[in-house]
Specification:
The chain has helices at about 120-130, 145-165, 325-330; strands at about 10-20, 20-25, 35, 75, 80-85, 100, 110, 170-200, 205-235, 240-275, 300-315, 320-325, 340-345, 350. By secondary structure, it is mainly β. The chain has a domain at about 175-355. The strands form three sheets. Strands 1, 7, 8, 9, 10, 11, 12, 13 and 14 form a nine-stranded antiparallel β-sheet that branches. Strands 5-4-6 form a three-stranded antiparallel β-sheet, with no helix packed on it. It has a two-stranded antiparallel ribbon with strand order 2-3. The longest helix is centred in the middle third of the chain and has 22 residues, at about 145-165. The chain binds zinc ion (ZN) (2 copies). One zinc ion (ZN) binds near residues 43 and 46.
Amino acid sequence: MANEPQNPGYDRVEDAGTFQMLWDCKYCNTKKLLGVNHKFCPNCGAAQDPNARYFPSDEEAIAVEDHEYTGADKKCGNCGTANAAKAEFCTQCGSPMKDAKTVALRSEQMTAGAFAGETKASAKADFEAQKSGAPAAPAEPPKSNKMWYWIGGAVGAGLITLIVMFFVSRAVEVKIDSHVWEKTVKIESYKGRTQSSWCDAMPFDAYMVIHKQEVRSTNKVADGETCEMARVDKGNGTFKKERRCKTKYKDQPVYGDKCYYRVNRWGPERDIKATGGLTQQPVWPMVNIRAGSCIGCEREAGRSEAYILNMTEVKKPDKKHSCSYSESQWRAIPDGAVKKMKVRMTGGAKCETLG
Ligand SMILES: [Zn+2]
Ligand SMILES: [Zn+2]
């Protein structure tokens, strides 16, 4: 029973005993009467009001030993007196209890520390909250972390501002300063390259291998538990205390065999570039390479060209922009021409809007 989790979300629930609830007599104002021992006020004889039951503090709680639990009390439909669940007739007025309803239960309470005592006002507030559908006031108010809301809000506002600035642009006048064409040939080389991988995935032709132990993954392992106490109204003048625990987990590193090695592979080596202005005929650069599959041999790995206009904003000469266009667009605009173009609030040019 003790180790059987009854509440979902907990790994372990421990029985911490059953105790008497307290009640105050509303007729003679005697306080802290016991929920089990005092079904009637010992001072004036008034019946216990099940709606006035409240929880004692941990120090004041009186344990109930061997008290047979038959269910929550039932409330007499005639006089309102709480009777034991198995009672057939009301102990106060003798009415049959067959169709009597179960008394209302106090809300469950949780705490990480010790429970404080209540007054009958707590019971009243709890039942009123239950009726209005609002959650009952917790035994321990949750710690609010307002600072994080502010930081989150500020970061969010900043991000939104940046996004808006990226999409909002203004039209500016730009002067074409110069024309530049660039023709580039990418060259790859075949040579020893430093690489690393988990050793079980190392290429077969690797050499100069160094093994190291490195964290490859993590295992979640149990690392103690966090527990809370709960007190639960059983509806018969008693409540039970439970210790509800969740297992804590920590990440434990799992090491693997990591290999650092060299391996002969094709890879980026250099770019050969030719550039010129409007008056020079665009030509591909001379490509002088040692072809083959030897160590140190080279091969072409793609060609690209760009036709770039360098511009200055007329009103803000410190703001410069560079944009690529097709060769025919690039040729159609002379140096010194003044054009309109949209520029983002974040600073980048919307090159396609030049016109
Ligand atoms: Zn009394
Ligand atoms: Zn009755």
